[in-house]
Amino acid sequence: MDGTRIDVPAGVTILDAADSAGIRIPTLCHHPDLRDAGVCRVCVVEVAGQRGLQAACTYPVTDGVAVRTGSLRVTQARRDVVDLLLAEQAGDCPACLRYGRCELHDLAAEVGAGGLDCPAPEPGRLVDLLGPSVAVDLNACIGCLRCVRACAEVQGIGVLGVVGRGPSTQVSTYGGLPLSQVSCIDCGQCVSHCPTGALQAVDGTADVLAALADPTKHVVIQTAPAPRAA
Ligand code: FES
After folding, report:
1. Domain named 4Fe-4S ferredoxin-type: which ranges (predicted)?
2. Atom of ligand 1 nearest to the CA of 39
3. 3-class DSSP state for residue 14?
4. Assigned CATH for 9-123
């Protein structure tokens, strides 16, 4: 890796092999608590013999494979990915609860992203009170699915999922139901695993409960599909 021989057990990922040798590969959708999904592409590296860049967090090493983690092609691709994620952010960052603790912003500083000259999208995508304890601000969501995986893998609950496809993909509950109507246990794992301010803890005050009852503030993203006829 980067010209250094690394001995690791067969089958570990490039990311883990790099980590064992003290080589830093930036990540975003990766989290040590979670199984890797390879969705953000921030961790891309060059693998000898592969035409396209590969996600280090999901690519298993094989004997003798040569990897470049910091070539010009890799660093430019990584910066482009983070630039595009930043360009999707439509919220008011200084007002965000995670302002100053946002993993995306830390990552942008690390890879030198933030120089993309494009108009910011209009704020106003969905801010959905999923329940009395959790809200999702899709203006800040980067689609890393850490919340969905944390709900299923850390807590074993699995009430969060995604609806829609491509750019319309959104985090929601399965069936689009408020968390109060599914088996959410208010554990907060989705909030603590979110790298931005997209998943936020809210308190179950009267204001929040009133907002939940207000259909202009609580938007059901998608209703459950009708069961198929046998
Ligand atoms: Fe590897 Fe997101 S960290 S694809």
Report:
1. 132-162, 175-204
2. 4
3. helix
4. 3.10.20.740
What is the domain class of 124-220 according to CATH? alpha beta
pLDDT in tens, 15-47: 999 999 999 999 999 999 999 999 999 999 999
Distance 119 CA to ligand 1 centre (A): 26
pLDDT band at 227 (very low <50, low <70, confident <90, very high): very low
In the predicted structure, residue 122 carries a pLDDT above the cut 70: no
CA distance 146 to 143: 8
The encoded tokens of residue 2 equal 């980067």
Is any atom of ligand 1 closer than 6 Å to the C-beta of 53? no
ipTM: 0.99
**Where does CATH 3.30.70.20 sit in the chain?**
124-220
Largest CA-CA distance found in the chain, in angstroms, rounded:
61
The CATH 3.10.20.740 domain(s) of the chain lie at: 9-123
Angle between helices 103-111 and 72-87 (to 10 degrees): 140
Sign of the CA dihedral 176, 201, 133, 211? negative
- Asked if residues 27 and 43 have their Cβ atoms less than 8 Å apart, the reply is yes
Residues 196 and 189: their CA atoms lie apart, in Å, by: 14
